């Protein structure tokens, strides 16, 4: 990553000021910590503040600037990590008391280390569904994360703390994980940018696992420029030269992905497609079976991962998580094998669709965030659990391992988001389309507060 980041984002502005000596990294970090302490009581996005370690790293950045050394492209930029990323000196709990007696991490997760090397400063761990098994960040141990745009509503999950911290303006970017939609769902409900990279492209070392064959990690941010800059560092890639958006073929997904969506979501997708000049509709086959396969693979792999501990300490688990993990551990092997066979078939069908279009557009959720006291959504005319069903549009796509960029639509009222789906390794095309939607005013994150934007006095 070069010293020059893409302009236009909060992280870029902070790094530019710190590198130029207009602000100190210490003042940025301490200001963000004070803002979290003052405002996060409304949202419950943060589980731990990493104060002393964060200030110490910020002092290192300031010393580098004073000595004329390169402090890194993200110099002094504060960020948060979902509480399943190892942070040196901290216990990684994955949102559960089951792990609280583990030894502190001896080193950072690989992506955290890369961001530190670029000058970014981790200042907090962030709330999540226990062991990342859920779409709502309702956690029996750490509480429910509330949506900054309406604290009576869910933030989504399982990376709900990450999305809410960015939407609240507490942090310019945060790290999340996505197995079945855990970056994309909260990005949609909280109205932030999020990226699920191509499976296997970003290292998972030091990230507590859930479903090894589906897990990916990625960034969430308030602008597409910051999202791209952070992703580039996480993936250890050279800066991307984005293609001309006019050369990118775009189509919308119909069928399953056009059913059950709210009028506001339908109108948002219509506006996006009209602007991009794409009128092609592609309907994928057997999407319901793809979602079912994702459910089965998730349950089986997750259940077997936790089975030894469940035999010893099951009552320490969140009851909702425990029951699903135990059920998954009891699935017959033949069912898991059949799901994997179908997965290969479905992936081939999606690749056929991507031969017709470079980017596929789909909703992320059926509509806006459900209320916390009524955690349900309507699917096929029936009220169903939000915790289990907010991912009806993300789970089938997860099965393929493809990159997906979550775009916050520029809508009035509560946020909505759409998925941009691309071919493996084609994140550049997703970013090109996303940047055009932001430029055209069809996509925008509306963070509240943004205390990190204050200048030194």
Automatic annotation (TrEMBL):
Keywords: Hydrolase. This is AtzE family amidohydrolase. Residues 29-430 form the Amidase domain. InterPro entries: Amidase (IPR000120), Amidase_dom (IPR023631), AS_sf (IPR036928), Carboxybiuret_hydro_AtzE (IPR014087). The keyword Hydrolase applies. Gene3D superfamilies: Amidase signature (AS) domain (3.90.1300.10). GO terms for molecular function: hydrolase activity. The keyword Hydrolase applies.
């Amino acid at each position: 990553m070069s010293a020059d980041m893409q302009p236009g984002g909060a992280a870029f502005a902070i790094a530019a000021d710190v590198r130029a000596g207009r602000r100190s990294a210490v003042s940025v970090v301490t200001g963000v910590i004070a803002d979290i302490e003052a405002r996060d009581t409304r949202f419950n996005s943060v589980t731990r503040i990493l104060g002393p370690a964060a200030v110490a790293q910020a002092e290192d950045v300031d010393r580098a600037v004073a000595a004329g050394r390169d402090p890194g492209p993200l110099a002094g930029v504060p960020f948060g990590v979902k509480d399943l990323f190892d942070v040196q000196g901290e216990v990684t709990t994955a949102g559960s008391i089951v792990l609280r007696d583990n030894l502190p991490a001896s080193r950072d997760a690989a992506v955290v280390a890369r961001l530190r090397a670029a000058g970014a400063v981790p200042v907090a761990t962030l709330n999540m569904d226990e062991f990342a098994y859920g779409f709502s960040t309702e956690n029996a141990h750490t509480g429910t994360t509330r949506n900054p745009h309406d604290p009576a509503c869910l933030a989504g999950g399982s990376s709900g703390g990450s999305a809410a911290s960015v939407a609240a303006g507490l942090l310019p970017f945060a790290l999340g994980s996505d197995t079945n939609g855990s970056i994309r769902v909260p990005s949609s409900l909280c109205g932030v940018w999020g990226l699920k990279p191509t499976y296997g492209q970003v290292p998972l070392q030091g990230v507590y696992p859930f479903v090894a064959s589906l897990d990916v990690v990625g960034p969430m941010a308030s602008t597409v420029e910051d999202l791209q800059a952070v992703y580039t560092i996480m993936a250890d890639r050279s800066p991307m030269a984005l293609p001309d958006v006019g050369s990118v073929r775009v189509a919308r997904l119909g069928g399953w992905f056009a059913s059950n969506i709210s009028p506001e979501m339908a109108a948002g997708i219509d506006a996006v497609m009209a602007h991009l000049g794409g009128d092609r509709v592609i309907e994928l086959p057997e999407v319901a079976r793809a979602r079912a396969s994702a459910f089965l693979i998730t349950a089986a792999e997750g259940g077997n991962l936790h089975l030894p501990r469940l035999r010893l300490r099951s009552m320490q688990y969140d009851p909702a998580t425990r029951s699903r993990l135990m059920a998954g551990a009891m699935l017959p092997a033949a069912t898991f094998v059949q799901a994997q066979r179908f997965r290969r078939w479905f992936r081939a069908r999606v690749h056929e669709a991507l031969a017709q279009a470079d980017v596929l557009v789909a909703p992320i959720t059926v509509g806006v965030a459900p209320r916390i006291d009524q955690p349900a959504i309507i699917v096929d005319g029936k009220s169903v659990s939000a915790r289990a069903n907010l991912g009806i549009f993300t789970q089938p796509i997860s099965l393929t391992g493809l990159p997906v960029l979550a775009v916050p639509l520029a809508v009035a009222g509560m946020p909505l988001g759409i998925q941009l789906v691309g071919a493996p390794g084609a994140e550049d095309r997703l970013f090109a389309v996303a940047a055009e939607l932001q430029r055209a005013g069809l996509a925008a994150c509306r963070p509240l507060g943004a205390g990190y934007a204050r200048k030194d006095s």
